[in-house]
């Protein structure tokens, strides 16, 4: 499997930010890590290996980026306002640095689909819903779509506008809504086993339904827990069937 590592100094985050790329061709799958993990997490836990047939077959080119959750919402020592600002800086990094980098390494026409598990599911969904003009869809696995689950009671405008369960019901901008509605790749998946919260996916699907937004919701059984074996099975299953 073709693998490249890149890094640059991010103006938005004022630090070096690495990216791992897997493959040569195909649509761009932008992987967002879970919790406080890094850009190589999906490789360490063999999820990249599970995608090998799609990567080597030229169906998908994977871009795996760093989170800064350990500097924002996972940093219990930080001031909540700082956490919110840091999260916004990370959004700017993805929108203004990562997406152009993906385009440079694919093409202007290549679809970009965000994807993540657990906390990465929330981020991947939020990135798409905030910028459907530059991101074409999302694959969210085992997610909770309310940022307040992670903010320890803190709430301000930045929390609101990064919490899809809060802002999507009130989204009234017709142009943005139409961009979202044109996507045929809003996928919400969850298991029903230990530490999963399938009702979060169901509640968020209801929000999308009420806004006239197409989505795919699929809830797997009790044997599928909130863990890597679920995601290593789930993601290739849907790539094979939907892309």
Would you give an account of this structure?
By secondary structure, this protein is an alpha/beta fold. The protein has a single domain, classed as Rossmann fold, CATH 3.40.50.1820. 39% of the residues lie in helices and 20% in strands. It has 10 helices and 8 strands. An 8-stranded mixed β-sheet has the order 1-2-4-3-5-6-7-8, with helices on both faces.
Summarize the structure.
The chain is built from 10 helices and 8 strands. It is an alpha/beta fold and 243 residues long.
Sequence stretches where pLDDT stays below 50 over 5 or more residues: none
Report the CATH C-level class. Answer: Alpha Beta
**CATH architectural label:** 3-Layer(aba) Sandwich
Rg (C-alpha, Å)? 17 Å
Strand content: 15-25%
Number of H- or I-type helical stretches: 10
Name the helix and strand elements from N-terminus to C-terminus, one letter apiece.
EEEHHHEHEHEHHHEHEH
Helix content: 25-40%
Instruction: Tell me the overall shape.
Output: globular
Strand tally: 8
Structural class, from secondary structure content? alpha/beta
- Quote the CATH topology: Rossmann fold
Strand order, largest beta sheet: 1-2-4-3-5-6-7-8
CATH superfamily: Alpha/Beta hydrolase fold, catalytic domain
How many structural domains in the coordinates?
Answer: 1
Mean pLDDT: 96
The termini sit apart by: 20 Å
User: Main β-sheet, in a few words?
Assistant: 8 strands, mixed
């Amino acid at each position: 499997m073709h693998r490249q590592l890149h890094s640059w100094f991010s103006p938005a985050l004022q630090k070096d930010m690495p990216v791992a790329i897997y493959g040569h061709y195909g649509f761009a799958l932008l992987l967002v890590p879970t919790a406080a993990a890094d850009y190589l997490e999906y490789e360490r836990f063999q999820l990249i290996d599970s995608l090998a047939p799609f990567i080597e077959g030229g169906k998908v080119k994977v871009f795996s980026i760093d989170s800064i959750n350990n500097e924002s919402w996972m940093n219990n020592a930080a001031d909540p306002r700082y956490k919110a600002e840091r999260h916004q800086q990370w959004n700017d990094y993805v929108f203004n640095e990562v997406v152009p980098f993906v385009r440079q390494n694919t093409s202007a026409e290549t679809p970009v689909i965000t994807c993540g598990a657990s906390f990465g599911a929330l981020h991947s969904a939020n990135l798409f819903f905030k910028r459907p003009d530059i991101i074409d869809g999302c694959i969210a696995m085992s997610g909770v779509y309310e940022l307040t689950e992670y903010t320890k009671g803190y709430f301000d405008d930045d929390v609101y506008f990064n919490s899809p369960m809060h802002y999507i019901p009130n989204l009234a901008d017709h142009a943005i809504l139409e961009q979202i509605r044109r996507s045929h790749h809003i996928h919400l998946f969850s298991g029903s086993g230990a530490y999963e919260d399938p009702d979060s996916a169901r509640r968020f699907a209801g929000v999308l339904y009420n806004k006239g937004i197409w989505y795919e919701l699929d809830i797997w059984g009790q044997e599928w827990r909130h863990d890597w074996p679920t995601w290593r099975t789930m993601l290739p299953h849907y790539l094979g069937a939907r892309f």
